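Batch job 17 of 40 flagged for manual review because the log was empty.
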Amino acid sequence: MEQIGALTQRGLAAVTRLARRLGLPADEPVVLSHRGNLLVHLTPAPVVARVATLTGTWRLDPMAWLAREVAVAGFVAERGGPVVPPAAEAGPYWQDGLAISLWQLVVPRDVQPGPADVGAALGRLHLAARDCPTDLGELHPATDQITDGLAMLERNAVIDAETLATLRARHVAALADLRAEGGEPIVLHGDAHHGNLVGVGEWLWIDLEETGRGPAAWDLATMVRYSHAEDGLAALRAYAAETHTDVPTAADLAPFRRVRDIEAAVWALGVAQSYPARYRDTAQKLLATVLEG
C-alpha cells in the first residue's frame, strides 16, 4: 500500500471523530484502501467507513454522490440483491469537511469473477434496482464526473489550456452521440467492472457512488471495456440471459465506450497527481487514446 498522505491522514482523523460521535469503536481503525476514497474498518465492529477524500476534492457536491450510493445499495440489499449493504446508520455524514458513509463489513474470498459471473451479477443488480424510487439524476459518470474532473484539472494546472479545451470539446460531442442513442433509463451501477465485485459465497457489488439513471448500455460498455473480445461476449451473453434482453453489438456500445474513455482519462490524470508511480503512465496513455480518437 502506498504511503499515507496528508489527505488520507485528515480522512482518518475525521473517521475517528465520527465514530466516537456515533458510539462506534474508534481506537483501532484499520485502513483498507486509500486512493480515490479512504476505506477504514472500525475494528472490532463489522463496519467500514468510506470517506470521499480525493474524490471529494473535485466533486462539487461529494455528499450527493454518497447519498445516492447509500440509497440504491440500501434498496437493492433490502430486496436480496447483489450488493454489500450499507450499515444500519449509513449516513452519509459531513465530518470535518469530508463526506463519509458507513457500510457492513464483508470478508471476501481470494477469488476473481469470471466474465459470465460479472454479466450475471450486473443483470441481477439491474433487476433488483429497477423500482428504486430515489431521485438519482442522469448518467453522473458521463456528465458530472467529467465536467467536475476537468474543472479540477484546470484549477490545478494539470494539463495545458489547449489540451483542456480539446477534452471539453470531445466530451460535448461524445455526450451528444451517446444521448442520440436513447434507450430506456434504468438504475445503473455507474462503474460496473469486475474490480467492483467481491465474492462472499455470491458475487456482491461495491462502489455504487456513480449510480444514476441511464441506458443499460452504459454499464455494459463499462463491463466489457478492458475485456478480450471472447470474454466481453461471454459477459454480455450472461447479462442477456439474466435479464431476458438481446446481446448488444460493439456498435451499440461504441458511443458509451467513447464517453467512458474520456472519463477514464480525466480520472487517471487527477489520481496521478497523488499517486504518480501507479497512475502517471496510465493517465498519459488514456489521454493519448482520447486525443487520437
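Reviewer: the log was empty due to a logging misconfiguration, but the result itself is present. Residues 6-104 form a domain with the Phosphorylase Kinase; domain 1 fold (CATH 3.30.200.20). Unflagging and moving on to job 18.
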